[in-house]
Structure formats: C-alpha cells, structure tokens
Amino acid sequence: MSLTVLTSAYRLRSVFRLQRIQSHMMSSHVDPEVLLEKVGRAGVITMNRPKVLNALNFTMIRQIYPQLKKWEKDNETDIVIIKGAGGKAFCAGGDIRAVTEAGKAGDSLAQDFFREEYILNNTIGAYRKPYIALIDGITMGGGVGLSVHGRFRVATEKTLFAMPETAIGLFPDVGGGYFLPRLQGKLGLFLALTGFRLKGRDVQRAGLATHFVESKKIPDLEKELVDMKSPSAEDVSRVLDSYQKQSSLDSEKPFVLDRHTSDIDRLFSASSVEGIMQNLKADGSEFAKKQAEILSKMSPMSMKITYKQLQAGAALSLPDVLVMEYRLSQACMRGCDFYEGVRAVLVDKDHNPKWNPSTLEEVSDHSVDQCFSSLGEKDLTF
Is 116 a catalytic residue? Predict the structure, then answer.
C-alpha cells in the first residue's frame, strides 16, 4: 500500500474521529445534563438526564454549586426552584457506577465526588433565600440530598422516597445522619437500615416533605412561584399552603406505617444492630419477620456504620454530620462491600452480594470506629 493511500486513510480516520467527537459535543450541547435558567426573579434548576432518572453526576454538581452561590448573592434573584425533567424522577441518586469505577482505579473522583456533593448539600441547608424542591417522582440518595435540606420540599402522588444504601454496602449519606434521627421516634433508623420506600403523601407525613401537591397542579404552582414579586419565605409558604389545600388526593388514607409506628419505636430502640435483629426475631409478628428478612440481606458493615452514624448525628449540626459522612464515604471506598454491593445490585443484578464480613457478629466495634476516624488534612472542610 502506497504512502499516499496510507496517509489519506489515516486522514480519513482522523476526520471520522473528529466528526464523532463533534457530533458528541453537539449532542451534549443540545442536551445539557442540568438546565440553569432565570425565570422572572426565580433561579430554576432542572436536572436533565431523564434516561437515567436524573442521576446526579460530578459535572452536574460542579454546575449547580457555583450557580446557587451566584443566585444567593444576586439582588435580582429572590427564590430558587429545583426539579427533574422527564416526568418519572426528581433525582434517583448519585452516579454510583462512576464512583465505583473511580474507587477501583484509585482515581480522585472517589474523593472529589463525595466532597463536592456534601459541600453542595451544606450550601442548600444554609441557603439564605427560599429554596423549593419539587420532588415530583423518584427521589433517592443523592436526590434526597438536593431536596431535604432545603426550606421547602413539595411531594406529589408520584414521589417515591428511599435511602437504599445499606443494600449496596454504603450508608445513608448526603446528610442522612442529620435528617433521619430528627424524624419521629425510630422512624429514621428504620428507614436507614431497611431502605423502606415511602410514597406520595406519606413522604410529607413522615416529615421529609413540607407540602403535598397533586402532580397535575405542579406547573401552575411553579408559574405562580416564578411570577411572585420579591417574595419572602412566608409568601412562598402561603402559596404552597394554598395549593396543598386544593390537593385532597389520598388524604383519607392513613400513613402507611401508622399501624407499625409503636412497633418500630419498640423494636428499633435496641442499643445495637444485633439487638434490633434479636428484637425482630423474638417478636414473631409478620411485620417483624419481614424486617428481619430484609436486614439479613443488607451489608452487616453498612448497618453497623449507619447505626452509629445516626446515633452520633442526632446531636450534631448539618456541617459536622457531613464532615463525619465524608470520613465514612472514604472508609467505604477503602473497603470491599461497596464494590460488591454495586456489582450485585446495579451491574450483574444477581442481588446476591457476598458481604465481607458476612455476619453482624464478625464486624468488630474497632473496625466500625476506624471508619469514623479523622482523615487529617484530607478531612472535609467548608
């Protein structure tokens, strides 16, 4: 083959490669992963990855954080609204697969993702302007972190809330150590250990949402919010209250855990995870049997970390909880259960993880305490 033919073939390949890169850039240009818009005097954030249920990735965190900071200082911006595109999800969680790959490869994303996500969570918790999360759809893990610390969280009948991290060898992070122990009785610990899913109006009844509004009314609510002139938090509250009053859907149904609230408080008030398991097994009720079965599938290490996390978090501020959780995130990156959990639940989907250690009894207090140890200069700072 002549040099001319080789050169032109090489050039052609380069052109095709360039076209592929350009078409990729154009497609990502057409479809940004997060939309940041100014509508009237409102800053509107739309998570725009509907095909992956608006999973939160590092790029999105890096776009949302500076914009929130900018709007907080901007005299022309009165409120911030955050929502998800596509009609199915607000945000179904963090981009766990990318973090797993980074952790395995020793890539810095395994530190940077958690660090910057938690800084974003803290910014939302301390935000000086009304922050309104329209959680109209699936809201789990990282999606909870983008909503629950904000002043207003509006659930609809399509909301599905869960913190399912113990099933993948992680722990309920993004400030779970702050908001979960502050729920009624032992409800937070129950949700944290079991990953129990709350739906619709129950998300508000549990105290995770501030309001319940029917999904079909959300566009009108959003329009009314963006049209407000220099609203205070009280003004926003009044508008949300008025929409809630017009939303009677499922209002006659009792809270899904109503019958079990006293059982949860009793069974989950043991001084260790082993104690909770003993309580559940000794109880003998269908409800207790079901919870024991669910917990037997979770990572023993994750459950013990989670128990201690919520116990400690009950007395800490949100920033201090996030410092603690960053230490825990890095302990999970160093361990093996997180990688195994992601493999079993998200990659191979065989739902048959081989936890190490495989029993609660094999998880020593010392190994749990080590996960909470300071990282020195690598600790999270605000």
Answer: no
pLDDT digits (tens, 9 = 90+) for 148-189: 999 999 999 999 999 999 999 999 999 999 999 999 999 999
**One of 142, 150, 175, 313 is an active-site residue; which one?**
142
Q: What are the tens digits of pLDDT across the range 22-38?
A: 545 444 456 899 999 99
DSSP letter (8 states) at residue 56 = B
Which alpha helices (DSSP H) does 246-317 contain, by range? 261-267, 273-283, 286-295, 300-313
Query: Among positive and negative, which fits the CA dihedral 217, 220, 224, 225?
Result: positive
Task: Calculate mean pLDDT across residues 358-365.
Answer: 98
Within 163-232, residue ranges assigned H as helices are 176-179, 187-194, 201-205, 218-226
Amino acid at position 194, single letter: T
Give the per-residue pLDDT at 31. 86
**List 95, 117, 165, 337, catalytic entry:** 165
Residue matched to tokens 């940041």: 36
Is 94 catalytic? The answer is yes
The active-site residue, picked from 78, 117, 136, 173, is: 173
Q: Which of 93, 94, 176, 335 is catalytic?
A: 94
pTM, entire model: 0.91
Q: Is 173 a catalytic residue?
A: yes
* Backbone torsion region of residue 363, taken as left when φ is above 0, otherwise alpha when ψ lies between -120 and 50, otherwise beta: beta
Which positions ≥6 away from 242 have C-beta within 8 Å?
none
Q: How many residues does the chain have?
A: 382
Does the annotation mark 43 as catalytic?
Answer: no
